[in-house]
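Hello again,

I reread your note about wanting to compare the complex against the isolated chains. To keep things tidy I'm splitting this into two emails, and this first one only covers the full assembly. Below are the input lines as submitted, including protein chains and any nucleic acid or small-molecule components. They are followed by the predicted structure of everything together. The single-chain runs will come separately.
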Amino acid sequence: MTTAETGVRRPTTAAAPTGRAPGTSSPGGAAGPRWRRRIVPYLFLLVPVALLVLLTYVPVVNMFWYSFTDWDGLDKTKNLVGFENYTEVFTDPENLHVFYVSLYYFVASFVQMVIALYFATILSFRIRFKNLWKGILFFPYLINGVAIGLIFLNFLRPEGGLDTVLMSLGLESLVQQWTGDPDIANATLASVSVWRYMGLNFVMFLGAIQSISSEIYEAAEIDGASRWHEFRYIILPSIRPIVGLSLILAISGSLSVFEIPKVMTDGGNGTETFVMRTVWMAFNRNMVGLASAMAVVLLVVVLIVTWVQRKVLPDDEVDLT
Amino acid sequence: MTRTLTAGLASTVKYVSLVVASLVMILPIVLIVMGSFKTNQEFLSTGPFTAPESWTNVSNYVTAFTRGGMARGFVNTVLIFTVAIAGTILIGAATAYALDRFRFVGRRGVLNLFLLATLVPGVTTQVATFQIINWLGLYDSQAALILLFMGTDIISIYIFLQFVRSIPRSLDEAATIDGAGHLRIFFRIILPNLKPAIATVVIIKGIGIYNEFFLPFLYITDPEKRPISTALFAFKGPFGSQWEVISAGVVITIVPILVLFLFLQRFIYNGFTSGATK
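Full-complex prediction:
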């Protein structure tokens, strides 16, 4: 599709070998330059917008529609059932439980942001081996989620790494069935999630802090500001937009947890998450209607939270024009 | 006097916290590396911190590579990556070019369409997207993954949009005077000038595709077509009790990303900060 030369200038030359190339679809020969100039942007946007609509908007609309039906994903007919699916989402305790599970990940993401902010702050000042620390803290984010799940299954198995460390520190009493005990399994998995994603928050915060002009610090130091004052009155206000963005990501992230619990417990011991349940419902039990209703609920929650966040922490980052 | 004392204390706290955090980050990985060199007997009988008897015992790696299908996983991942990334770049650049260089009816609408789509997390719509992929007859094919990677990547469109703005319009105009058409301007001026953006997108997207698990889990059932992450996931079946082979599989998955990271560190950091903030 790269026959750039012929495509646009002569509308009659359908010389481009593939059909997709913009310009080749011009109907009729006698188009003036102005007409052509007008059609050009649409031709460039044809494929991107088609994909966007096909893979984002059509599914969203369909999902709303399916959520009011009893469709099983295969049947030709879909019967309207009104709000029945929604009633089931909110009354079946097993369905509600997944929201409770996501609270663990939500709380964990705050812990994660605090840790990330701490390390981003100390590593933005002069310190030895800066790049080494940065690399170590960030690298886990780049590891495949399945690999992380398996790494921690190994680390947390009975008599595995963590237990051995605790025993050698004389803390036998802390040894647990880390993923096997329903009381702590979710906390364990959420901690693994902190291990995985802390680096991304850290690098985002670090980038934001480093974009603060050094003159501001110098001025503050002349005024006798302590490190804490610098953090409180310079760093924190200037990274507010990125903290706000991290909050949105934390909420939608904690509702869409999938890989780590899938690999580590497969949803056992009360660790089933929203996505796991929707997928299971749609593809194992063929209840596409009910699964869609759950997905709609998830989407609405994310939208509300995003809206609230924008109200509470307004920022001007979304500037596309 | 007390001032230097507190400063010293603060500095100690700083370094201690860094060392502790680093241990937490590294220890689980070190243990899996050690495990991957042990024999099955050894794995069961020795503690996790015991070094393997022989650091040259690569039999677990051989098993993982051949019987575990990791080799095929790599080939499949590279294939999916190459096509999807080429598509993403063309789509992102075309969108950015059209939106930045032309004023046309519906421009605002298209912009909003892309903006609004960022609010929809991919996982929520997957049940419905699945039906579309199915309807297109792409279930259990790598084309499904490629299409999804290309079609839902709003972030890279943003990155391209930022960069196209910084390419001077006078370049386009000069080319037009020389008789270049829009396609020629796109391929000869816009795309080459987008190199930094392309590098960013290749890095972020590359890591994303390499690590993607949900989509292949949902769409690919044929073991022959599996990319690396579902190939590794499949280890839980046949090698369920052979932790040393699983460990080798994990290490095989991590090594390429580690090498990439060590070589491209600076670009990777920059990619993530520019990808995340705007």
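For quick reference: Chain B touches chain A through 95 residues (CB under 8 Å).

B.
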